[in-house]
Amino acid sequence: MPRFQPNNLEYNKILYERVNEMAKKKGCTPAQLSLAWIHHQGNDVVPIPRTTKIENLEENIGTLFIKLTPEEMDELESIASSISIKRARNIASMLTYRDIETPLLSSWSA
Question: The pTM is what?
Answer without folding.
Answer: 0.67
